[in-house]
Every structure is written in C-alpha cells, then in structure tokens.
Design brief:
The chain has 375 residues and is an alpha/beta fold. Helices cover 45% and strands 12% of the residues. It has a single domain, classed as Spore Coat Polysaccharide Biosynthesis Protein SpsA, Chain A (Alpha-Beta Complex). The protein has a seven-stranded mixed sheet with strand order 3-2-1-4-9-6-10. The protein is globular, with a radius of gyration of 29 Å. The termini are far apart. Bound molecules: guanosine-5'-triphosphate, 2-acetamido-2-deoxy-beta-D-glucopyranose (3 copies) and magnesium ion. One 2-acetamido-2-deoxy-beta-D-glucopyranose binds next to helix 3. Its main location: endoplasmic reticulum. It is found in: Endoplasmic reticulum. Keywords: Endoplasmic reticulum, Glycosyltransferase, Membrane, Transferase, Transmembrane, Transmembrane helix.
Length: 375
Amino acid sequence: MKLLGATFSIRSLQYVFVISSLCAILAVILRPLVYTSKEDNIYTTYLPPKKELTKAGTHRENATLVVLCRNDDLEDVLSSMQSLEDRFNKRYHYPWLFLNEVPFTNAFKNATGRMTDSKIEFVTLAPEEWELPTSIDLTQLAHTLRVMTENQVIYGGSLSYRLMCRFNSGFFFRVPKLLQYDYYWRVEPGIKFHCDLDYDPFTFMREHDKMYGFVIAIREFPNTIPTLWHHTHEFFRKNPELLARDNSLPFIEDYGMGLDGMYNLCHFWSNFEIANLNFFRSDAYMKYFNYLDSQKGFFYERWGDAPVHSLAAALMLNKSQLHYFEDMGYFHPPWSHCPLDEESHTSGRCLCNRDRSFANNPYSCFEQWHRNMQI
Ligand SMILES: Nc1nc2c(ncn2[C@@H]2O[C@H](COP(=O)(O)OP(=O)(O)OP(=O)(O)O)[C@@H](O)[C@H]2O)c(=O)[nH]1
Ligand SMILES: *[C@@H]1O[C@H](CO)[C@@H](O)[C@H](O)[C@H]1NC(C)=O
Ligand SMILES: *[C@@H]1O[C@H](CO)[C@@H](O)[C@H](O)[C@H]1NC(C)=O
Ligand SMILES: *[C@@H]1O[C@H](CO)[C@@H](O)[C@H](O)[C@H]1NC(C)=O
Ligand SMILES: [Mg+2]
C-alpha cells in the first residue's frame, strides 16, 4: 500500500506538473487576448488627457534658429537643443545656425548634428564682425576693466563679454549666412523650454506684423550703462523722425516725461528673442547702433545688447509690433517664465512652477509692460 500509494502520488504529481506547465504556456499565449482591454482601461484611467499637438504643415517660414557660443559650451548647447527640439522643432524642422569667432571643432559639429534632423550650419565670424575696433584706446579700456572689476560690476572686467554684447547689438543680423532669412530665434546654451509649443511663432510674427518678441522683461544693472540713456536721448533729439508715433515710452520711463525723464532700466531679456531681422537691418536701427558705437560705451562702459535692442524696439517700433510670448515656458538661469493660465497646466502642455514665474518677481518689468499696452 505504502509503495503503491507513493507511486500513485508521484504519478499524479507528474500529471499536475504537465498540466500546470500547459496552463502556464497557454496563459502566456492567450494573455494579450484576455487582458488587453483591461490593461487599456487601467492606463486610460491614469493618463491625463493629452492634447494632440498640431502636425506642422509643409510650409516653413523664412526663419532660422541662431546660437552664438564657444566650443566649450557644448554640453549646455546640447541640452538647449534637446529642449527646443522636443518642445517645438522636431515637428517644424527649422535650421540651426551656430556662430563663433573661432572655428567650431569636429567634436562640436558631430555632437550638435546628432541632436537634430534639421539642416545645421556652422559659421566662423569674420574678424571685423567681432574684434576690438581700432578706435578703442587700450589704456582707457584697461582702466575701465580694472575699475569695473573693483566695483564688482557684473562681467565688468571682461573684454570678451563686451565683444559679445557689441556683436549682438550691431552685427549678428548682417552675418552673410543670416542675410537669407527674415526671422530668427535666439537660443543660448543652458536654457530650457517648459511647454510644448503647438503653433509656429514665426508664422504668428508674420501674420500679425510683429517685429520683436520676448518672454522676460527685467531691470538692467545701472552701473553697466551710466550714459546709455543720455546718448539715446541725444540721438532722438537729433533724429526726431525716428521716434515711432505709437512708441513704448511708458515701458521705459515711469513718470510720463518721455525722453526727458529717467530710464527705469526695464528691458527685454535678450537671451530669448524671436525677431524680424529686417528691423535690425533698417536704416533707423543701423543709425542708432552706429551712433552708440561711436560713443564707445560698449567698451568704456559695459553696455549690454539687451538694453540696446530694447531701447531701439521701444522707441522706433509701434507697440503693436512688439509681442510678449506669454504662453512660452522658458528658463535661462536664474529666472523662469511659466505661463500663468490654468489650461497650460491641466492639459499637460507645461511643466513648471507658476508661483516661481518671474512675472511674480518684484524685479520684473511686467507692470511697466502692461501699463504700456493699456495706455
Ligand atoms: N563664441 C562666443 N560666444 C560667446 C562669448 N561670450 C558669450 N558668448 C555667447 O553669447 C551669449 C551670451 O553670453 P552669456 O555668457 O550667456 O551671457 P549672459 O546670458 O548675459 O549671462 P549668463 O548666461 O548668466 O552667463 C551666449 O549664447 C554665449 O554662448 C564668446 O566670447 N565667444
Ligand atoms: C566626427 O565625425 C566624423 C564623420 O563621422 C568622423 O570621421 C570624426 O572622427 C568625428 N570627429 C570627432 C572629433 O568626433
Ligand atoms: C527670406 O528673407 C530674405 C531676407 O529678407 C530675403 O532676401 C529672401 O528672398 C527671403 N526668401 C524667401 C524664400 O522669401
Ligand atoms: C507706426 O504707426 C504709424 C501710424 O499710426 C505709421 O505711420 C508708422 O509708419 C508706424 N511706424 C513703424 C515703425 O512701423
Ligand atoms: Mg546666457
């Protein structure tokens, strides 16, 4: 009995083993049929409703993305590219144009080329587009760099930063490779876009006759531009016809005194810019730039391209030609702009903290911007 019983149970165990193996195999084979609908339900329950992004049409605007940078900015350039490609350009395929006063290395070209399916080009700037003008006195320049370093002026001791600001103020838009475009989007290393962009901002600019678009408005450090306002005032006194009729003086002057008042230091943060290059190429802007350049404040002070672009846009364009890209989530260290409306967040379009958006910061110039647009 014992022996028989043991034999019997071994045999039955074999059956159990064979049958359960068959079941396991069947379960694997049949699993998709049995479980698919249930799993779909699980996932649709947990996924937020996601807005379908518009597929870009075949039409592309006459526009390019532009990055001025150095070879050793590579890592931060790649993260900027990844962000803009993911949020916008992988669907629109605007070309990338890289500018540098020295040739880009093969390593730089290879790595950036891998980040995009779009056309990508690399430009080495001509010496006259970048180098120190011969009119600048080296002794006076050295003196300025030393004094500004002592006074802890931001980038006050840097010559290369000054060359960059002068280039961005008066030269980028006439780099030969850029002449073939109407619009540009300035991209810097180490920036990030917080939101999907489901329309083409270049098309928006063209259809609404916009010349200059920004995301963040902020105050300049006064010790970088001691006489910029004085020279600007002087320029418009000599060329009153260049002051736009519907200008944005209320954005840059707080007491309704116009050019006779004081500059409140408000400017568009030019590390982000979507603009019509023909504005910068215009006789009016060129005349303003050449006048400022002749005053040598790019070197004997430390004029930034942001206040120069902004004063020109505020004074030589009509308000309707400026655009605040309020719906664009954007980060350039240390500040972010995060769209404040509910829908940008409930739709899953944006991932950023509204409370920390720069518009809520006391140093922002959004109050001045809104005042300007309401007048
Ligand atoms: N090729 C080149 N690009 C430069 C040079 N200096 C600055 N840039 C670029 O010019 C732009 C502005 O320079 P940044 O150093 O970002 O200046 P910023 O935005 O005022 O200040 P931070 O971002 O806070 O450093 C960036 O796109 C830089 O990559 C330079 O000497 N050569
Ligand atoms: C860049 O890519 C080219 C072509 O694929 C290759 O021959 C070259 O070795 C690469 N150079 C570097 C520095 O990565
Ligand atoms: C693009 O813009 C440039 C600069 O204004 C112009 O010369 C060129 O003809 C334009 N190209 C097209 C296709 O419209
Ligand atoms: C501003 O608008 C006026 C009409 O109100 C127009 O005559 C002028 O040309 C415009 N200025 C610019 C820069 O477009
Ligand atoms: Mg920067």
